[in-house]
Write a structure and sequence with these properties.
- By secondary structure, the chain is α+β, with helices and mostly antiparallel strands.
- 27% of the residues lie in helices and 39% in strands.
- Strands 1, 2, 3, 4, 5, 6 and 7 form a seven-stranded mixed beta sheet that branches.
- β5 and β6 form a beta hairpin.
- It is globular and about 45 Å long.
Length: 166
């Protein structure tokens, strides 16, 4: 009696099912695109306003710079103005980012939620710093693209000459 051996189509189909199950546990590259664009903007703000990253309405942003919450029709404009001020004051420069593995991914129709462990490095008032935290995102799919509907930034650890970590 010969043992069953799946043909190449069976193997490919099996791998596709496993790949799909794994992909459902985390944001895919298309979902990460607005976040990568946001990071690029933050690392080197261009003269032009940020576009294509945020949803067109109902955006909520929670940040660690005043006024800390940006909500309402002008949320993105006010956040951008605040962030540019942060950079212009010398509070931030030479920003680089490193992402950890996304956590707690879930999807409901055209919305997804996930937490993204994030480490920022750079300079704040000429002093080197390393800030580790979690960026929580809600993305919404509109016109075949994902946009940031909400994000919240929370620092878990800050290392700088002024605030060394024990």
């Amino acid at each position: 009696m010969s043992a069953y051996r799946p043909g190449i189509l069976g193997v490919v189909f099996g791998l596709a099912i496993v790949g799909t199950a794994c992909a459902a546990d985390r944001p895919d590259e298309v979902m990460m695109l607005p976040i990568r664009t946001l990071v690029q903007f933050m690392a080197s703000p261009p003269a032009s306003p940020i576009s294509g990253v945020f949803a067109s309405t109902d955006v909520v942003i929670v940040e660690n710079f005043a006024p800390y919450i940006y909500i309402g029709p002008s949320a993105v404009t006010r956040w951008e103005r605040g962030f540019r001020g942060h950079v212009a004051n010398g509070d931030l420069s030479e920003l680089k980012v490193k992402f950890g593995e996304p956590q707690d991914f879930s999807r409901d129709g055209n919305r997804v939620y996930f937490a993204l462990p994030t480490t920022w490095t750079g300079r704040s008032r000429r002093e080197r710093f390393k800030e580790t935290g979690v960026w929580s995102f809600v993305l919404v799919r509109f016109n075949d693209a994902w946009h940031v509907l909400a994000y919240a930034w929370g620092v878990m650890e800050l290392q700088s000459p002024a605030k060394p970590v024990p």
